[in-house]
Design a protein that fits this description.
The complex is a heterodimer of chains A (116) and B (114). Chain A is mostly beta strands. Helices cover 0% and strands 53% of the residues of chain A. In chain A, the strands form 3 sheets. In chain A, strands 2, 5, 6, 10, 11 and 12 form a 6-stranded mixed sheet that branches. Chain A has a 4-stranded antiparallel sheet with strand order 3-9-8-7, with no helix packed on it. A two-stranded antiparallel sheet of chain A has the order 1-4. In chain B, the strands form 2 sheets. In chain B, strands 2, 4, 5, 6, 9, 10 and 11 form a 7-stranded mixed sheet that branches. In chain B, strands 1-3-8-7 form a 4-stranded antiparallel sheet, with no helix packed on it. Chain B is built from no helices and 11 strands. Chain B is an all-beta fold and 114 residues long. In chain B, strand 7 and strand 8 form a beta hairpin. Classes of the chains: A mainly beta (116), B mainly beta (114). Chains A and B meet through strand 5, strand 6, strand 10 and strand 11 of A and strand 5, strand 9 and strand 10 of B.
C-alpha cells in the first residue's frame, strides 16, 4: 500500500520569508512524486514532479522540491514567499512497478497563508 | 494544447436523483481519473480508467460508477444521490507508465444535493 503524509494542516509565513511545505511518502516500487497547488474553487494546478535523476527539482512560480530517498521525503520550498502563494498545496505519489502503475495517492493538503 | 474540460461546471440536484458528469482529457492522454473533494474528507480517489478499462478503484459505494469511451472521454455517474454527495468532483488525465506521466486536472464540477 502507498501513502502520503503532509504533517501540517497550515503553514503561516511572512511575505519575503522562505516557505517550506513538508511531505513524506511510503510506496512499494519506484515513486513518482508530485506537487500541486489549488486556489479557491479551482482545480489542482501542477507545480513540479520527481521521476528520476537530480534530487532537486525546479518547478513553476519559483518553487522547488528536494527528493530524499533515505528519509522518504519530498518537501516543497520557495526561497521568498509572496502573498499570492497563499493556497492549498497537495503532495502526491504514484508507484511504478516493472509492468504496471498504481493510482495517484494524494496527501491531505497543507494550507499556506502568506501575510504581508 | 487544450486542457482537461469538465461539464457541467455546476449542478443542483435533489436527494434520490441521479447525475452524470463528463470529462474530456488532454489530447493523447489515455488515462482519466476521478476525485471527490469535500472540506471534511479532502481529496478522495474514485477510480481511474485507461483505454476503456477501470484500472484502479477507490473506496466508494456502488452508487458511484464510471466509464470511458474509445476517444478517452469519460463519464461518471452517481445514482440515488445523498446529501453527503455534495462536493467538487475533479477529473484528471495523464499518460501513465511514461516519463511524462503527470495528472492534469480540470476545473471541476460543483455538485450540490438538496
Amino acid at each position: 500500500a502507498q501513502s502520503v503524509a503532509q504533517p501540517e494542516d497550515q503553514v503561516n509565513v511572512a511575505e519575503g520569508n522562505p516557505l517550506t511545505v513538508k511531505c513524506t511518502y511510503s510506496v512499494s516500487g519506484n515513486p513518482y512524486l508530485f506537487w500541486y497547488v489549488q486556489y479557491p474553487n479551482r482545480g489542482l494546478q501542477f507545480l513540479l514532479k520527481y521521476i528520476t535523476g537530480d534530487n532537486l527539482v525546479k518547478g513553476s512560480y519559483g518553487f522547488e522540491a528536494e527528493f530524499n530517498k533515505s528519509q522518504t521525503s519530498f518537501h516543497l520550498k520557495k526561497p521568498s514567499a509572496l502573498v499570492s502563494d497563499s493556497a492549498l498545496y497537495f503532495c502526491a505519489v504514484r508507484a511504478l512497478t516493472t509492468d504496471s502503475w498504481g493510482k495517484f495517492q494524494f496527501g491531505a493538503g497543507t494550507q499556506v497563508v502568506v501575510t504581508p | 494544447k487544450a486542457g482537461v474540460t469538465q461539464t457541467p461546471r455546476y449542478l443542483i440536484k435533489t436527494r434520490g436523483q441521479q447525475v452524470t458528469l463528463s470529462c474530456s482529457p488532454i489530447s493523447g492522454h489515455r488515462s482519466v481519473s476521478w476525485y471527490q473533494q469535500t472540506p471534511g474528507q479532502g481529496l478522495q480517489f474514485l477510480f481511474e480508467y485507461f483505454s476503456e478499462t477501470q484500472r484502479n478503484k477507490g473506496n466508494f459505494p456502488g452508487r458511484f460508477s464510471g466509464r470511458q469511451f474509445s476517444n478517452s472521454r469519460s463519464e461518471m455517474n452517481v445514482s440515488t444521490l445523498e446529501l453527503g454527495d455534495s462536493a467538487l468532483y475533479l477529473c484528471a488525465s495523464s499518460s501513465p507508465g511514461t516519463a511524462t506521466d503527470t495528472q492534469y486536472f480540470g476545473p471541476g464540477t460543483r455538485l450540490t444535493v438538496l
